[in-house]
Hints:
The complex is a heterodimer of chains A (119) and B (111). Chain A is mostly beta strands. In chain A, 0% of the residues lie in helices and 51% in strands. The radius of gyration of chain A is 13 Å and the shape is globular. Chain B has strands at 9-12, 18-23, 35-40, 47-50, 64-69, 72-77, 86-93, 100-102, 106-110. The radius of gyration of chain B is 13 Å and the shape is globular.
Amino acid sequence: xxxxxxxxxxxxxxxxxxxxxxxxxxxxxxxxxxxxxxxxxxxxxxxxxxxxxxxxxxxxxxxxxxxxxxxxxxxxxxxxxxxxxxxxxxxxxxxxxxxxxxxxxxxxxxxxxxxxxxx
Amino acid sequence: xxxxxxxxxxxxxxxxxxxxxxxxxxxxxxxxxxxxxxxxxxxxxxxxxxxxxxxxxxxxxxxxxxxxxxxxxxxxxxxxxxxxxxxxxxxxxxxxxxxxxxxxxxxxxxx
Lengths: 119, 111
């Protein structure tokens, strides 16, 4: 059974940093492109970042470029999101999601982890 | 403001069919057949209903169908059921630096 379990969320002050983790099971991370998608409280979905199955291709939304870094550890079958210079507008539930076909259609999602940026 | 435009709400009675739209531009919905639809219940993760405009993943009910015309994609729910009451989001690949855009979501109410 495919499972994605996020962790690492919490309360952080503006300008602070946080590292999210996503543990994958039931499939091999190195076989799929993986993504982070976030959802601000009461708002819609926003794509954040993507990493290819090889780890060679990495993309970011303009809103997080230069502040967030996506990475994967194939040995641990885990995905990460390092978030620096956090802002209030980064407050959201962060989901890791598996890419179904390689064209950004996400077939498996984690349960999400809440990141709150507030002083 | 979301990149793709969806109606805020759509409603229907049990057994009816409803259709919701998702309007983009030639840089996303109109230019590529990479439109997806998701269903989300409150407090839960989204679920993929449709990918590549009109394809259903294994296990998704055939009551859900997708289509596209020009810059507008559509999701139709036929035989509406109480359990279909949820938020629905469309997304599309986009040929810009932000590769994926979502709609603002449509809340479906079953009367």
